[in-house]
Amino acid sequence: MKSKIINITLVILVIVALSALAFLIRVGVRGDTVAVLDISGMTCGSCVAKVKNAIQTKQGIASVDVDIGSGRAVVGYAAAKVKPAAITAAVAGLGFTCRLVEVSNLAEFKSRHPNMAFGQQGAAGCDCSNK
After folding, report:
1. Is residue 95 assigned to a domain?
2. pLDDT at 121
């Protein structure tokens, strides 16, 4: 019985340690490049969440901001870990039309778009049940 309790405790400790390590690795991603995507077909907050989740699952993604009003996504990523084609493919895999509009380093992006504001979520008339 004592051996069983020790084994269960060790398994739980390993799971907690691996979860903490995975979190630290994800948090540690620093984006050096920004991609702007034009996405057609998003109609509601669920679409936004699906797009954001599909992009965030790619290794090397530092940040994702999706705006339903403009149909744009701004993605910060580590260029050494992920390529823009993989990001657009993740979105297209959901059934949305996705086009790469711009790729630039972080400093260039900030200088070209000093007032860019994203983050609007949702819209009335959702029609995304097939995506």
Report:
1. yes
2. 36
